[in-house]
Protein: RidA family protein
Amino acid sequence: MIQRHLQTRINHRIVEAGGILHFGGLIADDLSQDMKGQTAQICAKIEKLLTDIGSSKEQLVTAMLYITDFDQKEGMNKAWLEWLLAEHLPTRATIGVAELGQNVLIEIVVSATR
Structure:
């Protein structure tokens, strides 16, 4: 069975299928921040959404991080590692893209178990 959670105008924020929670892409609210700051904001959003749906960041399975500036990747990694303990790191891919929207430096997509 498929369950959809938190409908927006264009999608559901989370779709649950086969015991996996699939999240749509998330961006920071304060786009004046550098990539480290935007990453930290997104991680906090992910953590809240996971908690609200009965899961946690320790249940992350995979993550895709879309970034516009590889020169800021180390800041992104720093925020990521401050948020997650080594034993709970999911699989991850960092993908360079040309554009994510005005002042958007990073968008994160994750999947987790409940």
Observations:
- The chain has a mean pLDDT of 97.
- Residues 26-109 form a domain with the 60s Ribosomal Protein L30; Chain: A; fold (CATH 3.30.1330.40).
- The beta strands are 2-7, 12-17, 20-23, 60-67, 91-96, 106-113.
